Amino acid sequence: MNGLPSSLPRVGSTESLFAEPLAFLARARSQHGDVVVMRERGPIFSRASDCSGVIAVFGEHRLRQILTEIDDFALPMSAAAKLALPKNLVNLNRGLHSMREPEHGRHKRLLTGTINRELFDAHRNGIRAALDRLGERLKEDGRIAVVSRMRELTSEMASHVFLGPRCHEEDAELAFLLSAYFTLRREASSLNARDPHVYRAELIGVGQQLDRTLRERIRRYRNGPADDRAGLLRRLATAGLPGSPALSEDEIVGHANVMFVSSTEPVAISLTWLLLVLSQLPGLRRALRAEIAGRASSPTSPGGAPLLENVVNETLRLLTPNALMVRATTRAVSLQGVALPAHCEIVVCPFLAHREAGPFPDPLAFSPSRWETARPSPYEYFPFGAGGHFCAGRNLALLLIREVLSTLLLRFDFVLDGEQSIDWRIHIMLMPTGDPTLIAHPADERRDTPSPKWRGPATDLFHFAPGLS
């Protein structure tokens, strides 16, 4: 089988796709159903020259198959492969997403067993110290460019978790290299990127330095004494797979880079949207503050702050950073009765899946209370992916989000710095365009001035439920 089935509907022109990807996909689904051809030949989002066509797929049952059968539906060619980067730099992005079974399962068990609550608790003092430093800066100047500041904060917190207590001068350099390499890859992979080859020389320069620094650190950890406060990198360097020897140096490098990125950018963007949404809801901010202050247990403990958990869930539902996902068939397969050729690019849209009326009545309403009864399946709500390739760091990410939000809300009341037009874009993730600014007032300060309102394209993504203030 070479082409896409003639029985599948076609969308026609994809001219508006890159300008309005989410609206384009919503129209395609509304007009053509759950499986629709977007392009007959060649890729849209991936870099594969042998792509046999592109389809968009919707609906829980089809998404379940795509996300669980990871040997048949794999990640497509990466920018690193398309740019013919050196082998060691291709390896920098060789985490779980590039693995097949049984290798994938063994590594997944090791990572999920390593990136856990115990790791978070071991480095909680460092995380809180980073929050204290942010708090002191906000006391001096309450204005906050929220995207930039959340990126700085999550990078600092992830450095503690990833590297452990700072005891080496090069820790800051390694954290910088990890962030810089991700930023370059993000630019090269963006939907609206220039020719990716423009980034090749810089990617190689930063990537080689990152690869060398990671390997030097891994060797030091393997030859050094045990450390109860070890960060994730040291734990990976000394961990073994069940029934297998310790991870190889190449394997650790690949996992380390991916794990650092997954605990920084998604967390930063999620916190950005959470603070922006809460800036519009003074009553909800007060309720959250009262819940956090009035509970003996930590807000990050299971059931420790149910309202906080509901607010996080609802924000990740409507403003999921992971708005688009792409897979590619590795061979000719049947997708719920639809015959697909090998090398078929498949577009999955969590943004739209999270707006299904079945699991989420009144789906465009921001209503945290829905989570008191909502029980969506992992293929109806999957802000951190689902199936075989769900994010191994999702529990850590959620712990960091709750820790940051609960700490900041107790100390500060965040409002917009005047009325602002807030736009959005998909830049690997769904994120605000530009860098909206907030003002952090002391939480105990009484104010009668209404919170400034946001306007612009972001207001079209959802509306606040009646009665929510």
UniProtKB/TrEMBL annotation:
What protein is this chain from? Cytochrome P450
Q: Which GO terms describe its molecular function?
A: heme binding; iron ion binding; monooxygenase activity; oxidoreductase activity, acting on paired donors, with incorporation or reduction of molecular oxygen
Q: Which residues bind heme?
A: C391
Organism's domain of life? Bacteria
Keyword set for this entry? Heme, Iron, Metal-binding, Monooxygenase, Oxidoreductase
Tell me one Pfam family matched here. p450
Q: Which family is this protein grouped under?
A: Belongs to the cytochrome P450 family.
Q: Which SUPFAM superfamilies match?
A: Cytochrome P450
Question: What cofactor requirement does the entry state?
Answer: heme
- CDD domains found in the cross-reference section: cytochrome_P450
**InterPro entries from the UniProt entry:** Cyt_P450, Cyt_P450_CS, Cyt_P450_E_grp-IV, Cyt_P450_sf, Cytochrome_P450_monoxygenase
